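Hi W.,

Here's what went into the run:
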Amino acid sequence: MKLAIFGYGNLGRGVECAAKQNPDMELIAVFTRRDPSSVHTLTGVPVYSASDIKSFKDQIDVLIICGGSATDLPALTPVLAEDFHVIDSFDTHANIPTHFSNVDKSAKESGHLALISAGWDPGLFSLNRLYASSVLPHGADYTFWGRGVSQGHSDAIRRIKGVKDARQYTVPIQEALDKVRSGQQPMLSTRQKHLRECYVVAEEGADLDRIENEIKTMPNYFSDYDTTVTFISEEELLRDHKELPHGGFVIRTGKTGVREEHTERIEYSLKLDSNPEFTGSVLVACARAILKMANRGETGCRTVFDIAPADLSPLSRDELLHSML
Amino acid sequence: MKLAIFGYGNLGRGVECAAKQNPDMELIAVFTRRDPSSVHTLTGVPVYSASDIKSFKDQIDVLIICGGSATDLPALTPVLAEDFHVIDSFDTHANIPTHFSNVDKSAKESGHLALISAGWDPGLFSLNRLYASSVLPHGADYTFWGRGVSQGHSDAIRRIKGVKDARQYTVPIQEALDKVRSGQQPMLSTRQKHLRECYVVAEEGADLDRIENEIKTMPNYFSDYDTTVTFISEEELLRDHKELPHGGFVIRTGKTGVREEHTERIEYSLKLDSNPEFTGSVLVACARAILKMANRGETGCRTVFDIAPADLSPLSRDELLHSML
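Here's what came out:
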């Protein structure tokens, strides 16, 4: 199958790496809104201008759109679904229903199939929330993120005056994890679930106390959390914080039994050295499923909840029965 | 939807408990091969003779067959699929392809839908092997079971002369778990992955050394493992070993990246106080999916790999998008 990538940042490079690992796939093009001659791909895949994409209409089986959820994807995915089967990783949870319905309309009208919100959260974590809550209706589930770099929070710090660069780690609180695992189904506040660790490079002469205070009191991003701020040099940031690790936990505990009660626990976790490469790997597996589903005549918008797991695999039904069931 | 249970042992009772937790379900009958008047259900569901089941042909949406994989299910599932949409938890991994094709033939010919090998392994663990291997093709996965009671191994000990009762726990070896989690992708022998702990009640005057030796040297069951044998009284067995806990881990680690290599880890685990109640909970969620799929006109045999996750949930697509994605 022939894949292409629209948007070549960290996630686009992650998709490129993942495509390389799957012998049934070929990555034939990267589309960029920058000057294509300025973009050099990791594996030598040719780079084209985003404005040329329509001329590739019949050459691409699935187009993977790698853009930001704030402004890029809401605009791009419905438009690109007019000409291609598409996948995105739209992750603004509150806006998913609107994005779904925009993409669904466009894909249905043009006879294409689209998958939105693929990745690990939303994505694999969503699947685990769904499986666990379907199996254990009398229970509660909890999602913890980290330890990992939050790019949104790092960006928010960088927008503060006097900040040259920053890296923010989201850290799940061990005590909360332990309480959840015990099956007590605790009520946990935002502050009880996660810490935020900030590593900040300040500009020369900047007022460090003011920066620290602006971070810790920033609404939505930091004010509801226990936040630590550590000022480091640019060299330290580049040396110790250049990677983009992430991960997290989805844990559901529930009760079963009618006379005696039993506690059951389902736990799913990810520990990722490279968030964009792992997310890219999920998108590429989903591309395989979307092409199979499109070849069966499906059109419109889908989420990971609609993908029968067998469609993600390159193995045949017989191979799956023998080796994996 | 109207459910019925065929076979009322530990698993049948687990299904009964699970059905009770789902307001969209009603359990209307239990069928037994014993004298129905001798069987009393936990929730007052009426009990009928297995031989009367044909007269319920139009009253049951999905029939959950709770029998053993050695002889019951290979005979029962293909026959019951002639008259009902059916689900079983067939778990003899090596014979799944044969069982699948027998059930598929029968269900297709009669226009019914069947799901085989549902539960947690095969079942939820299989799903996790499939998702993880599709996402991380350059990797290795490992399944560990326990700590939990293996009924097959407990039965094998009970067949030894001089043994009155026994309970066998399968225990994953921590060192092996740690090595797998590190991302090293180790080669592990059977003995390196699990221990077997046996608690045995001997008959009065039995030769304990002989019993211990027969257990430890039993081929397939114990000879490839480090096995401990502890003789206890019948009172201790009833007091300390009456529950049927189980659980386990599916862990896959893989590499991503083309220039620099990164390690990614996906881990899924279950910690179950009641293996049969949890397995019953999985079967009941699958029954919901099978009815939705049958109502869309599907026939033949399926496995958990063929179920789109949304079909397991009582929630609508809109509710899933809002609350779970």
